[in-house]
Design goal:
Strand order of the largest sheet: 1-2-3
Number of helices: 14
Number of strands: 3
Order of helices and strands: HHHHHHHEEEHHHHHHH
Helix content: 55-70%
Radius of gyration: 28 Å
Number of domains: 2
CATH architecture of the largest domain: Orthogonal Bundle
CATH superfamily of the largest domain: Intergrase catalytic core
Distance between the termini: 54 Å
Structural class: mainly alpha
Length: 295
């Protein structure tokens, strides 16, 4: 068995031209497999079926590997047993049916309501571009827009009377998003006060304009968000999508229905929205731990 592992590593080096680091990584996985097979009485590669390889992966999961490392080890097993089958050392590839382990859902970062309030309150609309930046951040948080959706927002899609903005999102799908009272007031101040001074002959109908009269780029919006957060004295890393996450989380915390949040965010699948329920559960656990006598 060791001889065939040596042959496979040589194959990776000479025929595939893969790096020494990759060869070493594969070798470590296969050395662990050799050790495991020896300890479980397996003397030939033909002794190993899909169940045995699943048991080996389970052993790795319990002893040392996280899901990411486990997926790498699985790739090593798949290419190794495919090699053995092609070289006629085994008849059936036992690694082929194995499925890659899923990574645990990564909870989105959020801002608490007080931090959002601090960020918005720090912007002075009387100063240069203050009205624009306040309107931009208010709309981000009030409507949960994606960065591309905010940059693409146009005047003809804003209904100030009914407090709605028509958005074209992913997959060219259109939806209506409500605009909260504070965001609408900030937008009205910007549209009548500061935006006219940014308009040039080539200006389009985009709501948010640069100092040169063109639409704000995504990179410029990221800069604005970070600059405003720094001016507000917020140490946390602030970026546009964080405001979208905070929008959804705060709605859920205050009792909004998950289906409504799905519609507001423009998610095609409710499963995408359900990650916010985990955020809320995390908050509930923290509250219970801090305030319950038996927490």
């Amino acid at each position: 068995m060791e001889f065939q592992v040596d042959g496979f590593i040589l194959y990776l080096a000479t025929e595939r031209g893969l790096s020494t680091a990759y060869q070493l990584s594969v070798r470590q996985t296969l050395d662990k497999l050799l050790e495991w097979t020896s300890g479980n009485g397996h003397k030939e590669w033909q002794d190993l079926g899909t169940d045995e390889l699943s048991a080996f992966l389970g052993y790795l999961r319990k002893t040392e590997l996280d899901a990411s490392s486990l997926r790498i080890s699985l790739v090593h097993l798949k290419i190794f047993f495919r090699f053995l089958q092609k070289r006629h050392h085994i008849e059936i590839d036992p690694a082929e049916p194995l499925l890659s382990p899923k990574s645990p859902a990564k909870l989105p970062e959020t801002l608490n309501a007080q931090t959002v309030e601090t960020l918005l309150a720090s912007i002075n609309p009387a100063k240069k571009l203050g009205q624009r930046d306040l309107a931009l951040l208010e709309l981000f948080y009030a409507s949960g827009l994606r960065l591309s959706e905010l940059c693409g927002a146009r005047l003809e899609y804003l209904d100030q009377e009914d407090h709605f903005l028509r958005i074209t999102g992913k997959g060219n799908k259109t939806r209506l998003v409500p605009v909260g009272g504070k965001a609408l007031a900030a937008l009205a101040n910007y549209l009548t006060g500061e935006r006219p001074g940014l308009v040039t002959k080539k200006t389009s109908s985009h709501i948010f304009l640069s100092v040169r009269g063109g639409p704000l780029s995504p990179d410029r919006v990221r800069q604005i968000v970070k600059e405003r957060a720094k001016q507000a004295g917020i140490d946390q890393n602030i970026y546009p999508h964080l405001l979208r996450h905070s929008f959804a989380t705060h709605l859920l915390e205050n009792g909004a229905d998950l289906r409504v949040i799905q519609e507001l965010l423009g998610h095609a699948d409710i499963a995408t929205t359900q990650i916010y329920t985990h955020v809320d559960q995390k908050r509930l656990k923290a509250v219970h731990k801090n305030f319950h006598p038996r927490g």
